[in-house]
Every structure is written in structure tokens, then in C-alpha cells.
Design goal:
Layout lengths: L8 E3 L2 E13 L9 H8 L7 E12 L2 E4 L15 H7 L9 E2 L1
Parallel strand pairs: 4-5
Antiparallel strand pairs: 1-2, 2-3, 3-4
Amino acid sequence: MTTNLTHTKPIGEFAVTAVSDGTLYSNHDVILGIERTESERLTGIPYGQPVPLDVNCMLIHHRDKLILSDAGSGHTMGPTLGKLPQNLRAIGVAPESIDILL
């Protein structure tokens, strides 16, 4: 298996790569514990407009195993998500080569 894991971070015996499932467009209210004005300041997006949230799954290499921390959302949450299989392939990982799904 040839992989292009340029953004992989070693963590002890593990190598972890964030793989995008896409972008979820939500609202400021999902940023818990932050007042409206602070949410607007941090995001740069006026209240009431969609806030793009990156949705990532973690691909973990441990010894000879490939572990995926999440299976993604598929297309259940809109057309901007469900990109995990194609993004795994883009880094040289066939989805069917995953050994363990958490």
C-alpha cells in the first residue's frame, strides 16, 4: 500500500492523520458557551449566516493495522459531507483496507 500521508503526526507508537469527510454548514448556536458577539468575532461570520465546520475522521496507523476513528456521515447531513471514502483514496488508502473502525 502506497500512502501520501503528508499531514500525519506521530504520537508514541501511533501515526494519526486527519481525513476530511467534508464541511457541515451550521449556525452560531453550535459554538457552546460563547455569547453571540464573541461567536461572530471568532468566526468572522455575522450571526444568522451559516458557519462552516470541518468534519474530520482520524486515520490511525498502529503497527500493521489501519484504524479509523469514525465512518463519516455519508450523505445523511447534506451534499457537502460524505467525502471520507474519496479522501481516503486520495491519500492512497482504500476504504476496504481499514482493519478496525471505532
